[in-house]
Design brief:
By secondary structure, the protein is α+β, with helices and mostly antiparallel strands. The protein has helices spanning 46-58, 121-127, 131-138, 140-145; strands spanning 7-14, 19-25, 32-33, 35-38, 64-75, 90-99, 113-120.
Amino acid sequence: MAYKIPESVLVVVHTRDLEVLLLERAKQAGMWQSVTGSRESDDRDLEATARRELLEETGLSVGTLTDWGHVNRYEIWPQWRARYAPDVTHNTEHVFGFLVDSATVATLDPAEHVAQLWLPWQEAMERTFSPTNREAISQLPRRVLGHTGPA
């Protein structure tokens, strides 16, 4: 068995108007998230991982990918730990943003995601199940508009 590398990307797909694309996980109904995925051995760098995951999960390739320079380290949930080597308990997640011109219909891989929503950033924050995803989305007003307070 080839184990997953405990290094991943989180890619917040968004518009200039701070609309965020969320995807509903196929095997966990009601669990909404941004684009995520583990680094693979043939990915030359994390940007390549982010672009591969964007294409696989949404079909999106036209937009501006930005490495936010933000890293999260968290404990891997027990239900997903078997995908990793037996001694691996934590994952390192690198956060990216992907700016698109407008809310675009994504092409979903039905094995991974069953639905998509474009929501204002505040609603997207409330909908996502992941604390690191919520925190990344909360950064959008500052990163896109330069706002430091509530938008």
